[in-house]
TrEMBL record:
CDD domains membership: NPD_like (cd04730)
Cited InterPro entries: Aldolase_TIM (IPR013785), NMO (IPR004136)
A GO molecular-function annotation: nitronate monooxygenase activity
SUPFAM superfamilies for the chain: Inosine monophosphate dehydrogenase (IMPDH)
The keyword Flavoprotein is annotated on this UniProt entry: yes
Name of the featured protein: Nitronate monooxygenase domain-containing protein
Species the sequence originates in: Dovyalis caffra
UniProt keywords, alphabetically: Flavoprotein, FMN, Oxidoreductase
Statement: the UniProt record of this protein carries the keyword Acetylation: no
């Protein structure tokens, strides 16, 4: 149907790369099969063989294209090599400079590069580096938040930067349903990138308690209490759980380093201890005090009322947006 497609994908709907391993092959393949752009999340450490397996496993579940998200603040040279070697459709990058050399190398391998940015200057730099699309993240977004601006004012400024170029701008931050999708289109975006909505799907690798909390709770807060040692100066938007409420004014000199171990997870094939304030969200394998772990969510979480199959999320976004445009705006 080609309605509002981007980068060769049927629909302008992107499933954000959900760390540390919440968007695994099952979720990414389900989004790809539904016509969206699903993004795996590369490990936060060099693990090229494991990443190659993730890509191969995803390819056994879908014959559609998909992408991989990489956090440039962590060691990733070997991981990047694998992504280009496997000729994955899209390399999404975040939290770090997106150098022209990387874009050039990716293009030689036939891989499109899509950085996520949180301010006007970084958007300009990304455009100058020759990227294929840009995700603009507003402060409403869940998880690690790179900028300080709200989406509604930042997005059109970035859209104005690309008026004479064929670089689609995608909106991220607090978007959950077709109303948010249409609003983003009205601001000039060609598509939307959703994180929290895709955590609360059947195929996501999030722990069932985390998924349930996304349905039950509806408040988030911008904070920096999680993962101060592991990922410094990387504020987050987290769900206001009872644990978070008790600890949200953690003194600035404290970090997870001297905190007790509250659980364990297998993350991207490796056993990891989870310390209090460690900042790693619980996945399907996590054991221990789940309620005391970080649970990231964007401001749109109050609109999430049920756990759905990922294909249904995509379908409702597309059909809902078409109906909304037809019903509300076609006769204006």
């Amino acid at each position: 149907m080609g309605w509002r497609g981007i980068l060769g994908f049927e629909y302008g709907i992107v499933q954000a790369p959900l760390g540390p391993d919440i968007s695994g092959p099952e979720l990414v393949a389900a989004v790809a099969n539904a016509g969206g752009l699903g993004l795996l999340r590369a490990p936060d450490w060099e693990s090229p063989d494991y990443l190659r397996e993730l890509i191969k496993k995803t390819r056994t579940l879908t014959d559609k294209p998909f992408g991989v998200g990489v956090i440039l603040a962590f060691p990733c040279e070997e991981n990047l090599k694998v992504i280009l070697d496997e000729k994955v459709a899209v390399l999404q990058v975040y939290w770090g400079e997106c150098p022209q050399e990387l874009v050039h190398e990716a293009h030689l391998a036939g891989v499109k590069v899509v950085p996520q940015v949180g301010n006007f200057e970084d958007a300009r730099k990304a455009i100058d580096a020759g990227v294929d699309a840009i995700i603009v993240q507003g402060r409403e977004a869940g998880g690690h938040v790179i900028g300080q601006e709200g989406l509604i004012s930042l997005l059109p400024r970035v859209v104005d930067l690309v008026t004479d170029r064929d670089i689609p701008v995608l909106a991220a931050g607090g978007i959950v349903d077709s109303r948010g999708y249409v609003a983003a289109l009205a601001l000039g975006a060609k598509g939307v990138c959703l994180g929290t909505r895709f955590v609360a799907t059947d195929e996501s690798n999030a722990h069932p308690i985390y998924k349930r909390k996304l349905i039950k709770l509806d408040r988030t807060e911008y904070t920096n209490i999680f993962g101060r040692a592991r990922w410094p100066n990387a504020p987050q938007r987290a769900l206001v759980t009872p644990f978070f409420n008790d600890w949200k004014s953690l003194p600035p000199d404290e970090s997870e380093i001297n905190q007790p171990v509250i659980g364990r997870s297998t993350i991207n094939g490796e056993e990891k201890e989870i310390r209090r304030f460690g900042g790693t969200v619980p996945n399907m394998t996590t054991t221990g005090d789940i309620e005391s772990m970080a649970m990231y969510a964007g401001e749109g979480v109050g609109l999430i009322k049920e756990i759905l199959p990922a294909s249904e999320v995509v379908k409702r976004l597309v059909e809902g947006a078409q109906q909304l445009i037809h019903r509300e705006f076609s006769s204006i």
